[in-house]
Model the fold of this input.
Amino acid sequence: MKIIAGNWKMNGSRSALKEMVSGLQSLETNHTIILCVPYTMLGLESGRINIGAQDVSAHTHGAYTGEVSAQMIADTGAKYVIVGHSERRGYHNETHNTVRNKASAALSNGLIPIICVGETMEEKQAGKTMAVIESGVRESIPSDVNTPIIIAYEPRWAIGAGLTPTDAEIADAHALIAKTLSEMGLSGTPILYGASVKGSNAAEIMSIPNVDGVLVGGASLKCDDFIPIITSVK
Ligand code: PEP
Done:
């Protein structure tokens, strides 16, 4: 059984989510399906889809205009939240420290954080991929985890670019993440691969060792693109 998670980013609408919910309703699958949607779509009827947010405040409450707390997200019935997505790290200068605090806030409120790590093109070209991944995992995960978390390996240079690493590169990255998690006492934590996943490459990617599922951006927006990813693996 795999985890197939979608990230709608700043796309979609409440009616688009309704369409996705009804489109997936009759699908026969044992996989866990998650959609991380904009805040405005939280709390809607979601059928078999588990709903998540795409970011969360590190603060509990108070004078933080525009922010949304983990408690507020949990209050909508959402179960997951992405933290440390490449676009948050890039456009909002989020550091491992920020990401760790956000993951902590999520965990304190019963949410499962999907913690993203991955290297930029500059880091890849400098031969730092493995070091960046390992420090991302070690520094973005709170020290006191005792409820489930999910890690997503998302090579930042490949997101939305139609590019993917080779199978061997994905295998090496996921093996390193699994080893690091085990050293941190977190063996068994699911590790998703994300960046340019589509129906035509999903099965091959999910057959790579230590790939427990995928995090899908663009191809999660429409049933016609998302369903083939879900049905591509048993
Ligand atoms: C993402 O933004 O998490 C992502 C994986 O995007 P895409 O699938 O579009 O590359």
